[in-house]
């Protein structure tokens, strides 16, 4: 006896020994049709798996697009929320303007500028503006 333990398989797991050449010829037609059905089912399941993977990837892409859309919507909501403050500031600035006098010439003071300009380029712009003013004086 060799060093390997012997085990016996249950009868439903053992294949009958039909001898050489007794492959598909000895199988019953019901068994062959059942095997073919299972093969077709396997192919359908593989196709379903592939289609499910494609749907999952499309859903992930849709989720990313919706997240971007949600972020954009929040930004727009913040802008709309600030419009009330902007309009109130314009109203306050306009209320302090003197009423135009039809007898006076066009010397009506203009309102204070309500637009803020970033000043990171201010020194270069100021030098350019001063250069333009000097050219006009000398020209």
From TrEMBL:
GO terms for biological process: attachment of spindle microtubules to kinetochore; cell division; mitotic cell cycle. InterPro entries: DASH_Dad2. Its main location: nucleus. Residues 1-35 are annotated as: Disordered. It comes from the Eukaryota. It is found in: Chromosome, Centromere, Kinetochore; Cytoplasm, Cytoskeleton, Spindle; Nucleus. Pfam families: DASH_Dad2. Keywords: Cell cycle, Cell division, Centromere, Chromosome, Chromosome partition, Cytoplasm, Cytoskeleton, Kinetochore, Microtubule, Mitosis, Nucleus. GO terms for cellular component: DASH complex; microtubule; mitotic spindle midzone; mitotic spindle pole body. Belongs to the DASH complex DAD2 family. This is DASH complex subunit DAD2.
């Amino acid at each position: 006896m060799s060093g390997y333990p012997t085990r016996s398989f249950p009868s439903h797991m053992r294949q009958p020994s039909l001898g050489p050449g007794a492959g598909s010829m000895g199988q019953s037609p019901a068994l062959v049709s059942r095997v073919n059905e299972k093969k077709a089912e396997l192919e359908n399941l593989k196709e379903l798996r592939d289609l499910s993977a494609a749907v999952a990837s499309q859903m992930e892409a849709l989720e990313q697009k919706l997240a971007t859309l949600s972020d954009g919507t929040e930004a727009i909501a913040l802008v709309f929320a600030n419009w009330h403050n902007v309009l109130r500031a314009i109203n306050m600035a306009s209320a302090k303007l003197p009423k135009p006098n039809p007898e006076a010439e066009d010397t009506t003071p203009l309102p204070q500028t309500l637009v803020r300009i970033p000043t990171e380029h201010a020194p270069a712009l100021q030098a350019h503006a001063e250069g333009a003013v000097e050219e006009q004086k000398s020209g």
